[in-house]
Amino acid sequence: KPKIASLGGQERVFLMNDVNGDKAYEGAATNQPQLSTWVKENCVPLVREITFENGEELTEEGLPFVILFHDPEDQDSVKLFTEKVAEQCQDQRSGVNFLHADGFKFAHPLSHLGKTTKDLPVIAIDSFKHMYLFPKYENLKKPNRLRRFVDDLHSGRLHREFHGEVFKDRRKLSVIRILDLSYFLVKFPLVSSNL
Question: Residue 65 above 70 pLDDT?
Answer without folding.
Answer: yes
